[in-house]
Specification:
This protein is α+β, with helices and mostly antiparallel strands and 474 residues long. The chain contains 17 helices and 19 strands.
């Protein structure tokens, strides 16, 4: 396959016969938003962007691409952070955008399930659940633009994994177009189905390399009737760990989220994000953001107030504030959700999405910081994230006044330091963002070779011609 293939006009004509002439985009300007990704680390070329309208369209497109050996890059909301949705520079592939598969097929409050198409945004799925007085708990900063298909393909995590699990835990069934053009339908809402291999979870987290998810049946939950959000000032991550264990013991399943951030990170947000302010009277070296959800009116607020009072008396935090309104709660969450954007505005940032055992988080942060300080004394670690489930975004911002490109040139060296500590603690180099193109080589260095062989065997069985997202994951 080459970018200048002589049969391109015939191929595009065959594809247009399936999806319609207007759904085959070849204009350079119109294609441009699909060719890059949010961090500007990858930018490619493509023969076209296809916008099918149905699962059957997707399957028929894949049948032709499998026959002609045409690489296919599935794409949802294009919010992925590891380049898994971006074509390579050859221009030989097609981008398969799922944005027009945007129907809510069914919402069943009795079964606590809903079936949605891959192009439905996460925010639309959340609203569909609420319309039936139910709750879909996946929550991401990009929920207005990221799509369910992409969430499934990357096994998205977010801030509520502590209480509800990741996307793999929130799906009951999938509909998938296979590389050979067959459509696998496993959309049932059964909670128990012990009839062989779990094909649904095989495709979740596969990053579009095994098939193209066109729809899914998702789990719904009772809608919380009360929420409480608190922001606490802490000495260090060790104190945060003690606080986490204390709150879990007091609040139990009401604990929805437990996020941590350093003072460095908060200062970047206060500097760069308009409408933000420090919620505590005095600065602290570390912070925790805690959310409780209850199923009776006022329950979460009552338990949160009692828990904070005891925690402060016990010396588990230095200061705390409890949101007294929805606006205040949203303002506290904005401080956490703006961390990545603030770092982007500050300059170069070398990012890590890692997981270690929860009890090892303080050691991980301390040891990674010590090793980085020895190698890059002026660099600024900005750790933050989901302490409740062990997922820390250990980002490193450039030294003040440094050249961005020169700093980013040290990406591999910084990776080696941070991931070295992760491996020593039996952690993961990718907690929720996936592997994509960015971490493909790192996966080979860190994954069990037997596990990699098993993954390659599955890939070969389902996509023998290698047309699905080549160069991603494996």
């Amino acid at each position: 396959m080459t970018a200048n293939r002589s049969d391109a006009p015939l191929l595009l004509s065959r594809l247009a016969a399936i999806v319609g002439e207007t759904a085959v985009v070849t204009d350079a300007t119109a294609m441009s938003p699909y060719l890059g990704e949010p961090r500007d680390l990858y930018h490619g070329r493509a023969l076209c962007v296809l916008k099918p309208r149905s699962a059957r369209d997707v399957a028929e497109v894949l049948a032709i691409c499998n026959e002609t050996g045409t690489p296919v890059i599935p794409q949802g909301g294009n919010t992925g952070l590891v380049g898994g949705q971006t074509p390579d520079p050859s221009g030989s592939s097609i981008i398969l955008s799922l944005e027009r598969l945007n129907q809510i097929r069914a919402v069943d409050a009795t079964a606590d399930a809903m079936t949605v198409e891959a192009g439905v945004t996460l925010a639309q799925a959340q609203e569909a659940a609420l319309s039936a007085d139910r709750y879909f708990p996946l929550s991401l900063a990009s929920e207005g633009t990221c799509t369910i298909g992409g969430n499934l393909a990357t096994n998205a995590g977010g801030v509520h994994v502590l209480a509800y699990g990741s996307m793999r835990d929130l799906v009951l069934g999938v509909e998938v177009a296979l590389a050979d053009g067959r459509l696998l339908s496993a959309l049932g809402a059964l909670r128990k189905d012990n009839t062989g291999y779990d094909l649904t979870r095989l495709f979740v987290g596969s990053e579009g390399t095994l098939g193209v998810i066109t729809a899914a049946t998702l789990k719904l939950f009772p809608r919380p009737r009360s929420h409480a959000v608190a922001f606490l000032g802490l000495r260090d991550p060790a104190q945060a760990l003690r606080l986490l264990n204390f709150v879990k013991g007091r609040a139990g399943p009401m604990l929805n989220a437990f996020e941590v951030a350093s003072r460095v990170g908060l200062e970047l947000v206060l500097r760069h994000i308009s409408g933000t302010r420090d919620p505590l009277a005095q600065p602290h070296d570390w912070y925790a953001l805690i959310e409780l959800a209850g199923f009776a009116d006022g329950e979460a607020e009552r338990v949160a107030a009692e828990t904070l009072a005891v925690a402060l008396d016990a010396g588990l935090a230095q200061d705390a504030t409890l949101a007294q309104s929805l606006d205040q709660a949203q303002a506290l969450w904005k401080l956490r959700e703006s961390m990545s954007e603030a770092q982007k505005r500050e300059g170069g940032s070398i990012k890590h999405d890692v997981a270690v055992p929860v009890n090892e988080i303080p050691h991980f942060i301390e040891e990674a910081g010590r090793r980085l300080a020895a190698a890059f004394p002026q660099a600024r670690p900005v750790p933050f994230g989901h302490m409740g489930d062990g997922n820390i975004h250990y980002n490193v911002s450039q030294p003040i006044g440094a050249d961005k490109a020169e700093f980013l040139a040290h990406w591999a060296e910084v990776n080696a330091i941070v991931h070295g500590v992760v491996r020593e603690l039996d952690g993961s180099i990718s907690a929720e963002h996936g592997i994509g193109r960015l971490k493909r080589d790192l996966l080979r260095q860190t994954k069990d070779p037997v596990a990699l062989d098993a993954m390659r065997a599955i890939k070969s069985a389902l996509d023998p011609n290698g047309i699905l997202n080549p160069g991603v994951l494996l």
